[in-house]
Amino acid sequence: MRNYLQDYCVVSCPSLQEALMALQGTPAPIPMAGGTDLMVYLNYRRLPAGSYLDLFNIPELKQGIQIQDNKVVFSALTTYMDVRMHPYFQNNMKLLLHAAKVVGAIGIQTRGTWAGNIINASPAADGVPALMVYDAKITLASAYNERQVLLSDFYHGYKKMDRSPQEIITKITIPIPQTKDHEYYRKVGERKAQAISKVILAGRLSLDGQKKIQSIRIVYGSVMPYTYRSNKTEELLLGNELNHKLIQEAVSLIGKELQPIDDIRSTALYRRKVAQNLLEEFLCSAL
């Protein structure tokens, strides 16, 4: 497929409401923020011709990062670099900082947005597992409605989301943890930097005085066809004393719970084994 610039129409709107009204058209234009993924498709001549809605200069979506009461709010155009530069994340919710550091190169971190990482719906998204571990919610808005969706409920298949073409993300809301949890984030790829993920594990747990697990989140990226929260393995662990026997039971169960993908970057066999190894490393590091 060959791309010509005249095959594309980019629509810009001065306000959020005008942008949402533009999405009521038939067919609706495709929203774009940082455009980092779209430019890759354009470069490889695989970007579908049509209309695109430029969101990057809409003031209502550029409100930055707000620390409010017991929550952190990212406006829709918050970038990875915004998180890297914000002093709050140097000592709090460090998985977000870790994820921001491993996304692409500096240019991608400066332009790419957390909301775009969600909407692109790649199984290998680096930011989504960290957001999901913190029970993030996204606010979706259309011209006539606004609603919140728990991020862990947003995906239901490869590139399948609880979103209509008339909706965009306007903000991401993340509850501030009220306990001091043990946290873990690891990305496995071909290289230490600037590599697309083969396996990601983001984890978070809290223990009581008897080493019983009070809360736990286990989220995988680049293993299933979408970012996946491991509910069955969480249920096995929750309320039980964390010990080596329980860890081995969890490692065995996660191998059955996951149905890894085979693709150009890796095999299902490799992904399952690494997913098990990372879970064991996460849980053992909390002992």
Q: What topology emerges from the helices and strands here?
A:
Blueprint: E1 8-12, H1 16-22, E2 30-32, H2 36-43, E3 50-54, E4 65-68, E5 71-75, H3 80-85, H4 94-102, H5 106-111, H6 114-120, H7 127-133, E6 137-141, E7 146-150, E8 168-175, E9 182-188, E10 199-207, E11 213-221, E12 228-229, H8 231-237, H9 244-257, H10 268-284
Parallel strand pairs: 1-3, 2-3
Antiparallel strand pairs: 4-5, 5-8, 6-7, 6-8, 9-10, 10-11, 11-12
Could you provide a short overview of the structure?
By secondary structure, this protein is α+β, with helices and mostly antiparallel strands. The protein contains ten helices and twelve strands.
Your description of this structure?
The protein is an alpha+beta fold. The protein folds into 3 domains: 5-54; 59-175, Uridine Diphospho-n-acetylenolpyruvylglucosamine Reductase, domain 3 (2-Layer Sandwich); 182-284, CO dehydrogenase flavoprotein, C-terminal domain (Enolase-like, domain 1). It is built from 10 helices and 12 strands. Strands 4-5-8-6-7 form a 5-stranded antiparallel β-sheet, covered by helices on one side. A 4-stranded antiparallel β-sheet has the order 9-10-11-12, with helices on both faces. Strands 1-3-2 form a 3-stranded parallel β-sheet, with no helix packed on it. The mean pLDDT is 95.
Give Rg in angstroms.
20 Å
- % residues in beta strands: 15-25%
Terminal Cα span: 54 Å
Low-confidence stretches: none
CATH topology of the largest domain: Uridine Diphospho-n-acetylenolpyruvylglucosamine Reductase, domain 3
The largest sheet has its strands arranged as: 4-5-8-6-7
What sequence of helices (H) and strands (E) makes up the elements?
Answer: EHEHEEEHHHHHEEEEEEEHHH
Q: Please, how many domains?
A: 3
CATH level-1 class of the largest domain = Alpha Beta
User: Which architecture of the largest domain per CATH?
Assistant: 2-Layer Sandwich
State the total count of DSSP E strands. Answer: 12
Largest sheet: 5 strands, antiparallel
Bin the helical content.
25-40%
pLDDT averaged over residues: 95
Instruction: Give the class from helix and strand content and strand pairing.
Output: alpha+beta
